[in-house]
Amino acid sequence: MENYRRTKTTVSLINYHFVFCPRYRRKIFLNPSLEERLKKLVQDICDEQGFHLLALETDEDHVHLFLNVLPSFSPADVMAKIKGGTSKIIRDEFSELKAMPSLWTRSYFVSTAGNALSQTIKRYVESQKTRS
Predict the structure, then answer these.
(1) Which residues, in sequence order, are CB contacts of 72 under 8 Å at separation 6+?
(2) What is the pLDDT of residues 26-53, one digit of tens each?
(3) Does residue 99 sit in helix, strand or coil?
(4) pTM to 2 decimals?
(5) Which residues lie closer than 8 Å to 78 by C-beta, 6 or more apart?
(6) 54-73: buried (b, 16+ CB within 10 Å) or exposed (e) per residue?
(7) Which of 6, 60, 81, 103 is 20 to 30 A from 126 (CA-CA)?
(8) CA 39 to CA 51: how far, in whole Å?
(9) Residue 35 and residue 90 in contact, taking contact as beta carbons nearer than 8 Å
(10) Taking all residues of the chain, what is their mean pLDDT, rounded to a whole number?
């Protein structure tokens, strides 16, 4: 079972699955050192921001990221921190990407995933009126 995150004012379990791509869908992850550098940078950003990195993997032209975050971070906030925190560094360190105005597209896929099924939550919410 997954652990709920607790702060002074919240108890939460918010897991986001992100998929995002480099501009022009370039196959940048055919370079193993670039892939490793991205993974290290993402881990550093997660540590800084208090995100729990549950999984991270790349294919040749996209990134899959599975994170647990606190409710104070929207998906847009998370993507801004991850993409913004990696783009310039990677472009500076890998000369073949230097000419790109930015490393990532502005778009991304995001989906939520918790440990309770939607139907279970729906039943729970509906049953609140009848509880004593």
Answers:
(1) none
(2) 999 999 999 999 999 999 999 999 999 9
(3) coil
(4) 0.85
(5) 16, 18, 51, 67, 69
(6) eebebeeebbebbbbbeeeb
(7) 6
(8) 14
(9) no
(10) 90
Rg over CA atoms, the chain: 18
> Tens digits of per-residue pLDDT, 69-109?
999 999 999 999 999 999 999 999 999 999 888 999 999 99
Encoding tokens for residue 55? 């999984």
Residue 5 in tokens = 């995150």
**Residue 1 has what pLDDT?**
43
Task: Note whether 95 and 32 are within 8 A (CB).
Answer: no
- Amino acid, res. 118: S
CA-CA distances (angstroms) from residue 124 to 15, 47, 60, 120, 121?
Answer: 20, 34, 42, 6, 5
Q: Which is the CATH superfamily of the domain at 11-130?
A: Transposase IS200-like (3.30.70.1290)
At position 30, the amino acid (one-letter code) is L
